[in-house]
Structures are given as structure tokens and as C-alpha cells.
Design brief:
Layout: E1 5-9, H1 17-30, E2 34-37, H2 43-55, H3 59-79, H4 84-107, H5 112-137, E3 142-145, H6 165-176, E4 184-189, E5 192-194, E6 200-202, H7 208-218, E7 223-228, E8 249-251, H8 252-260, H9 271-277, E9 281-285, E10 294-297, E11 306-321, H10 331-341, E12 349-351, E13 355-361, H11 368-375, E14 379-393, H12 402-409, E15 415-420, E16 426-432, H13 436-449
Parallel strand pairs: 1-2, 1-7, 2-4, 3-4, 7-9, 8-10
Antiparallel strand pairs: 5-6, 9-10, 11-13, 11-14, 12-13, 14-16, 15-16
Helix pairs in contact: 1-5, 2-3, 2-4, 2-5, 3-4, 4-5, 6-7, 7-9
The chain binds adenosine-5'-diphosphate, aspartic acid (ASP) and magnesium ion (MG).
């Protein structure tokens, strides 16, 4: 039986007409049945800027941004020689973008719901263009564009919605039918979904990877492919350190740790749906599709102690201290209850007799309600300007001499916090943000290149 493949293309793979054509050729070669696309590179940032500019009351600035968005999408449309009805659909979406910007400008307010709607235009525009590119590249297939919001159901937490997986599978079954049996390839949008009231939501920045995996789960795909601008997952971000090496095979667990601890190549929760259904995920370059790429699977042959190094920037350290922690039980659960209630995630934690130190993403510091609740539990101190550097691998908690090796490589660096032992797949250190890239390079050289 033919494999059911869901392929996702990121922003650079949608960047211009040539990139779209290259990506379309890949879909044809792979025989993809569903294609999930990101906005053209830089467009989501532009839409965010548009919302902020409108909120600040700068209509001149908004006009410039809307002009840029029009230019970008119509230029690609022209180069792809799209038919008139698609041109009209693109023009309609761009007018809707402008109308929403006017609404925000008029109110001088951008609600979370309006903000998600604004960001949705990027994927909606690129998917229309890509549908045409794929139709041209693959005349023997019926290429259909579908609005992912009719399938991908989420809750109503704008900006970081949680998918409702059962509802999503039900919608996919009802609306898309049997993908294996049909001669259709569906093109749809990553990153966006719909809440129970019918409002547009987003899954968080970089969320198109997550969409592909969620849709792969919903249609019981055999493979999910993530096509991007690098040849698969490397031992560290190749932009950060020249010594980065390609990884050919990696486990779900290791790749998920990398994603959660800052490797931008995958959105942090991408692998969760694929793991639930045991769907192998391939990561490859749409610019050099002939290269090997990376396969992510439940099990792989080798399990090195040190597989990769990841960097998570913009970290803040929140310390909560209170004598109430002494000889009491249930205190930690109250602390985590507060984080859960406000849906803020903590990456690294250490505790002492009377205090608990946790790292959070710096933007979370503006979350007043969270800090108000934390202050009710004890004294809160906040320090900013850190990066979390994580070593990802296997059996790390069973290796004699591991700490010596790690600290030997960074002995002159001031380490603010360490986390070892909680996971056999991860060891992390919190260091000053300016030293982050240096720490990545040193650990990589000492433990992975050595
Ligand atoms: P897309 O738009 O296709 O989703 P992203 O920019 O989100 O692409 O992710 C790809 C980028 O991830 C690469 O260009 C690379 O700089 C970065 N990256 C971070 N860590 C890694 C890693 N370990 N291996 C490969 N790429 C990485
Ligand atoms: N376009 C969205 C972003 O830039 C989602 C994605 O590219 O995955 O964050
Ligand atoms: Mg991405």
C-alpha cells in the first residue's frame, strides 16, 4: 500500500516563487497527500509589527507594512502566473488584513483574539499561492486548498492554543475522507486553528511543525516530513557553531528534548502527536532535497552519551523563598499549581530547604497575575539576562566522571544554576546570555567533536 505522507514547508521554503516551485517538486516526488505550509519568511513578523503599529496609532506605519505585504504576495503570484480567481482571493485576504488593522487602529487596542486573527493571514496567503505552484508542478493530481481551521480544533487560549486532538481527528475524517484512496493532494495552513466559538487561534511561534504532526496524527499518516532550510537536525545550531554535524537518526525522546530546550529546528511540541501514534518524522532541506536529512523514530541504533547541544536564549531566573517550605509538604505542588493555572512552563528547577529557583522565558516576566499569585507563596526575586545551554544524550545519569568533563570544558565560566539527574537525556547549565554561544561551542568541542 502507498505511504500516506504529510509534508510541511517552513517560511524560507515558501520565501519566493523559486522556493515554492522547488517545494512543489518535492511534494510530487514524495507523493505527499497533505501539505502544510508556513507563511512566507518574515511575514508573521510583519503582521505582528502591523498589529503593534496600529495599536500605537501610527496609521502611516501601517500603510507601509500593508504595502510591503501586498508587494510580496502579488510579486510571487505574478511570477507563478496564478489565475485571476486566486489573485482575487489574495486581494480579498489583503483587504481583510487592512480592515482588521483599521479596527485595531481605531480602538488603539489589539485583543489577543484580534492578534491571532491578524497573524493567520500569513499562512492563509502563502497556502493560496502554494496551491497554484503545486497544481502546475503536478498536473496528474487534483490539488485542493483547504482551510485548516475547519479541521484543527483548539481551545480558546489565543497565542498558544492547545489542540483538541479527538475533535481534530473527527473533523479530518468527516471533511477529508480517505486520503489514501483519493487522487487528491490537500494544501493547508500551518500554525492556525479554530476555537469552539469559531474564532481563529494560533499554536505559538514556529507552530507549523506542530500542525503537521497534529494533522499527521489525525489522518493516521505513515510519515511526517518537515522541509526547512538546513539538511536535517545537527548536533547544534549550524548558525551558532561551525563544528555542528548532521545527525542521521535520532530518537523521539532526544529530538523532543532538543526542541524543548531551544533547538529552533522544531517547535517544542512537534513530536508529541507523532510519538502518540509512532509516526516517523523526517527533517530535510527543501533547498537540497537530495541530501540525507534526519529521521526521528522511537528507536535508533546508537545511543551516544552526548548527542547534541541546544541553546535557549532570553531566560529569566525566578527564585521563590519562604521559611514555610521547612518541614511542610505540598508546598511545591502549590507553586506548580500557580504555574499550571497561568499556563507558564518552567524548564529548569533546583530547590533548597527554603527556596526554589526556576527558569522561565523572559517574556513571561510581564505576566502580572502569575507573579501576584507567586508572591502570595513567598518572597520572589527575579534575575534576567541568562541563556540555558543543554547537553542532550543518553544515560547521562549513569556516567561516572560526567560532571568533571562538562565543567572542565567551561571551568572559567560563571554557571548560575545546573540541572543534572532529573532526566537521563538532559544536562543543563544556566549562564549569562552573552556567554551562551561560547558555552555551546566549548561543550560541543569537548564532548561531541572530541
Ligand atoms: P522553518 O521556517 O523551515 O520552520 P526555522 O528557522 O524555524 O525554519 O528552523 C530552521 C533553523 O533552525 C535552521 O536554519 C537553524 O539555524 C536552526 N537550528 C537550531 N538548532 C538546530 C539544530 N540542532 N540543527 C539544525 N538546525 C538548527
Ligand atoms: N509563521 C509562523 C511563525 O513565523 C509559524 C511557522 O512558521 O511555523 O511563527
Ligand atoms: Mg520553524
Amino acid at each position: 500500500m502507498e505511504k500516506l505522507i504529510v509534508s510541511k514547508f517552513g517560511g524560507t521554503s515558501m520565501g519566493d516563487a523559486a522556493a515554492m516551485r522547488r517545494s512543489a517538486d518535492i511534494c510530487k516526488k514524495q507523493n505527499s497527500r497533505m501539505v502544510v505550509v508556513s507563511a512566507t519568511s518574515g511575514t508573521t513578523n510583519k503582521l505582528i509589527e502591523l498589529s503593534k503599529t496600529a495599536e500605537q496609532g501610527d496609521w502611516g506605519g501601517c500603510e507601509k507594512l500593508i504595502y510591503d505585504l501586498r508587494e510580496r504576495h502579488f510579486t510571487i503570484g505574478k511570477e507563478l502566473e496564478i489565475p485571476e480567481y486566486t489573485r482575487t482571493k489574495i486581494a480579498d485576504l489583503l483587504s481583510e488584513t487592512e480592515t482588521l488593522a483599521r479596527g485595531i487602529h481605531l480602538m488603539r487596542e489589539c485583543s489577543p483574539r484580534a492578534f491571532d486573527r491578524m497573524q493567520s493571514f500569513g499562512e492563509r496567503l502563502s497556502s493560496l499561492l502554494f496551491t497554484e505552484a503545486l497544481t502546475q508542478a503536478w498536473p496528474t493530481r487534483t490539488v485542493k486548498n483547504f482551510d485548516v481551521r475547519t479541521v484543527l480544533a483548539t481551545d480558546a487560549i489565543y497565542g498558544k492554543a492547545t489542540p483538541l486532538t479527538e475533535k481534530t481527528a473527527e473533523n479530518a475524517n468527516r471533511l477529508l475522507g480517505n486520503l489514501r484512496a483519493e487522487n487528491t493532494c490537500y494544501v493547508t495552513q500551518g500554525f492556525i486553528g479554530m476555537d469552539p466559538q469559531g474564532h481563529t487561534t494560533t499554536l505559538g511561534r514556529g507552530g507549523s511543525d506542530y500542525s503537521a504532526s497534529l494533522l499527521g496524527e489525525a489522518v493516521a499518516a505513515d510519515v511526517v516530513e518537515i522541509w526547512t532550510d538546513v539538511d536535517g537536525i545537527a548536533t547544534t545550531d549550524p548558525r551558532l557553531h561551525k563544528g555542528a554535524r548532521a545527525i542521521r537518526d535520532i530518537t523521539f525522546t532526544e529530538a523532543a528534548e532538543m526542541a524543548v530546550f531551544g533547538a529552533k529546528i522544531l517547535h517544542p511540541t512537534t513530536l508529541t502527536p507523532a510519538m502518540r501514534r509512532d509516526i516517523p518524522v523526517f527533517v530535510g532541506s527543501s533547498f537540497e532535497p537530495e541530501k540525507a536529512g534526519t529521521w526521528i523514530r522511537r528507536e535508533v541504533k546508537d545511543a551516544p552519551v552526548f548527542r547534541a547541544v541546544a541553546l535557549k536564549k532570553e531566560q529569566a531566573l525566578v527564585t521563590l523563598s519562604t521559611p514555610k517550605m521547612l518541614n511542610t509538604h505540598g508546598f511545591l505542588s502549590r507553586v506548580f499549581g500557580v504555574f499550571e493555572q497561568h499556563r507558564v512552563s518552567v524548564d529548569a528547577i533546583t530547590t533548597s530547604e527554603i527556596s526554589i529557583a526556576m527558569t522561565v522565558d523572559r517574556p513571561m516576566l510581564t505576566h502580572e497575575a502569575l507573579f501576584k499569585d507567586l508572591r502570595e507563596l513567598g518572597e520572589v526575586t527575579i534575575e534576567e539576562g541568562f541563556s540555558l545551554v543543554s547537553l542532550i544524550g543518553n544515560s547521562m545519569n549513569h556516567k561516572p566522571g560526567l560532571a568533571v568533563k562538562i565543567f572542565g570544558a567551561i571551568e572559567d565560566i560563571n554557571v548560575r544554576m545546573i540541572c543534572l539527574g532529573a532526566s537521563k537525556h538532559n544536562f543543563c547549565v544556566l549562564v549569562n546570555e552573552v556567554q551562551g554561544p561560547e558555552v555551546v561551542a566549548r561543550l560541543h568541542q569537548a564532548l561531541i567533536e572530541a
